[in-house]
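[recover] target loaded
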């Protein structure tokens, strides 16, 4: 059984740990608020691009229905194959955030196994140190790129270009037929959904809108260039916005997971301190009682 000195040392050690976890919780909460603001502002940007793409795609599909030949850009029609896949797996660079990284890696592992069973060639790009550490044990030969430090000081759009351009170039030279992103979509500090979705070729069906009027507030809605030329110039923006969306959702999810984990750790430390303090006081009381009994017994013997 531990003595009084050992219990005091253990209680002080847990109190120090509690201060650290409490501070980490506050830092994560502050970072989460900033990440949530970034999510809100970037959503408006992506929604506007999707609206433009949706309108053009609807018009071009209507032309197809009317029997006209439509030449879709490569970013929409793809390479015509589905043999070579590139998976962009987004995790964090740091731990202490519960099962956040393990959950993303598990979905990525299931997706890789599913594609391999179908006879597909799979390449993996890990964005985040923790995802690379987990996946390299089983899929080290499939990992072609490992990027760390993204969003280290807050997510920036220009950082997403490093990732998006890498997959973009491989797609255009034919090294990749389909590119998918796997990341944690932020819902709340305690709720996240692991998402696996295709970003290349760009799916215009998701952005499709019903047929819109050619007159808007009395002005005719027209294009200075052809619809195909406008669509071709906007699609890369939509693709990069999708990659950026994965980055900022990963960042917000990481901060939410760390805040929750540190809150749980702080509560557990508090409970453990209460339990050990009670045990310490009982042991101390027993020692005092024993000493008093020995003193009284000695006095009576005299």
């Amino acid at each position: 059984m531990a003595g009084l000195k050992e219990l005091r040392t253990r209680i002080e050690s847990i109190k120090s740990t509690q201060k650290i976890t409490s501070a980490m919780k506050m830092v994560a909460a502050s970072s989460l608020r900033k990440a949530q603001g970034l999510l809100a502002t970037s959503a408006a940007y992506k929604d506007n691009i999707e609206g433009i793409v949706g309108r053009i795609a609807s018009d071009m599909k209507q032309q197809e229905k009317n029997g006209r030949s439509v030449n879709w850009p490569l970013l929409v029609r793809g390479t015509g194959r589905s043999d070579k896949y590139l998976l962009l797996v987004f995790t964090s660079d740091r731990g202490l955030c519960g099962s956040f990284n393990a959950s993303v890696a598990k979905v990525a592992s299931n997706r890789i196994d599913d594609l391999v069973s179908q006879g597909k060639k799979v390449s993996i790009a890990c964005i985040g140190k923790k995802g690379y550490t987990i996946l390299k044990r089983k899929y080290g030969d499939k990992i072609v790129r490992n990027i760390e430090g993204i969003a280290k000081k807050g997510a920036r759009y220009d950082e997403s270009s490093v990732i998006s351009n890498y997959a973009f170039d491989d797609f255009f030279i034919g090294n990749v037929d389909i590119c998918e992103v796997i990341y944690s979509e932020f819902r709340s500090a305690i709720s996240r959904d692991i998402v696996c979705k295709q970003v290349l070729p760009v799916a215009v069906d998701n952005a499709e809108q019903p047929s819109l009027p050619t007159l808007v507030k009395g002005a005719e809605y027209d294009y200075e260039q052809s619809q195909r030329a406008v669509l071709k110039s906007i699609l890369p923006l939509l693709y990069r916005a999708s990659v950026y969306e994965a980055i900022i959702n990963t960042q917000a999810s990481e901060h939410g997971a760390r805040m929750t984990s540190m809150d749980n750790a702080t509560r557990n430390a508090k409970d453990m301190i209460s339990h050990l303090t009670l045990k310490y006081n009982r042991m101390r009381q027993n020692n005092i009682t024993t000493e008093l009994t020995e003193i009284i017994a000695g006095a009576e013997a005299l």
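[recover] notes: The beta strands are 84-90, 121-127, 143-147, 178-188, 191-200, 215-216, 219-220.
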